[in-house]
Amino acid sequence: MDFAKSDIQTMLLDSAERLLSETSGVEYWREQRDNALGFDETRWAQFAELGWLALPVPEAAGGLDGTIEDVALLNIALGKALATEPYVSTVVLADHILKQSANEARAMELLGEIAGGTLRVALAHQENHAHPLSIEVTETVARTSSEGYVLNGAKIMALDAPSAARLIITARIEGEEGIGLFLLPIDQAGVATEAYALIDGTRAADIRLTDVALPADALLVGGNRGAVVLREAIDRAMIALMAQAVGAMEAANKICGAYVQERKQFGVAIGSFQAIQHIMADNFVAAHQARSMLYHALANADGDERTRAAALSAARIVVGEAGQLVSRNGIQVHGGYGLTDEYAIGHYFRRLMAIEKQFGDLIQHTERLGDSIFA
Q: Which of 91, 161, 163, 281 has the smallest number of CB atoms closer than 10 Å to its CB?
């Protein structure tokens, strides 16, 4: 990998430092948590103005045609600032799926709306009792009709769905092999949503589909291709989330480093205590290992599915364990009360916990990596 930053990456980091430093901190995070959407729509519009939403979008749709490395670099900055905007759902997941759509003209139009900040899209795939790493669909079925399709089924934990205007629904097409990826308005007749907040202040929803009638062109990707595209999109989303976790860890370490130099006990800064120094050293090493494994996942992002899956699971394990270590140690050096709402480290703790559970947790990725090694 080339670790030298390109012009577009330098521009991204400069703009991220300016905007996110102005709109972050405990008071801001608490304000957004109480917001109905979980984030500030004004700042989302600023993301669009700065070109962040256009980053992976093709030039033909008004985008920057950036790489997954560009996306990861920006998401490190978003992770440092604990950004709760639906960037991964709309700009990473939906972007990749739409680019594979059979209707290229319609896809370019939608991608242009994403780049402009006027459209947000969420993936609704996970089903009750299904393994989080599985892409199989059993409960949601699309039946062909004279006008297109009729969908019935249920989805759980659709990340960022409460703020999305459209959903990408995965469904098993009756009488066909594979799965289909369908695009539909969230207010479509027959679609019922139950929204809720997650522990880190982001939003998700459970979706119920009852005789949802869709035209034929609502099918973005079908047949055996659907599973391949879905897996690619989820893998890219995992890379972006790991990048946010790396950014969050590095910010948490900076917060803890400042705290142990300011907090005094027995007349001296607690950072002078050997036990605290050991904790901070462990955190420093863990964050750097997490960044290294993020690079490992990026290096294999375009590999074959088996190689990519093994690299991603290995990275998810290291990043997940590092996130737990850094955030828990951060609470510890704050004397436990860092978990309260008034301290920034508690917000990083909750964000890292939520990221570790998305698209498979530590146990599930350990099992998948083991299966890959011993296959």
A: 281
And the tokens for 195? 């929204």
Instruction: Please give the single-letter amino acid code of residue 198.
Output: L
Cβ atoms within 10 A of the Cβ of 50, count?
A: 18
Same domain, 199 and 272: no
The structure tokens listed for 371 are 């299966």
Per-residue pLDDT tens digits for 83-109: 999 999 999 999 999 999 989 999 999
Length of the chain: 375
Phi (first) and psi of residue 10, to 5 degrees? -60, -40
Contact 20, 81 (CB under 8 A): yes
Q: Please tell me the total count of domains within the chain.
A: 3
What's the token pair of residue 149?
A: 């399709």
Using CB atoms within 10 A of its CB, is residue 174 exposed (0-12), middle (13-18) or buried (19+)? exposed
> Cα(42)–Cα(22) distance, rounded to whole angstroms?
13
Q: Which domain holds residue 268?
A: 226-374
Per-residue pLDDT tens digits for 45-85: 999 999 999 999 999 999 999 999 999 999 999 999 999 99
Percent helix, strand and coil across the chain, each rounded to 5?
55, 15, 30
What is the domain-level CATH number for residue 174? 2.40.110.10
Instruction: Indicate whether 110 and 164 sit together in one domain.
Output: no
Distance CA 346, CA 200 (A): 10
Q: What span, in angstroms and rounded, lies between the C-alpha atoms of 365 and 309?
A: 9
Residue 358 covered by a domain: yes
pLDDT per position as a tens digit, 226-270? 999 999 999 999 999 999 999 999 999 999 999 999 998 899 999
> From CA 329, how far away is CA 308, in angstroms rounded?
31
Specify if 74 maps to a domain.
yes
- CA 178 to CA 260: how far, in whole Å? 55
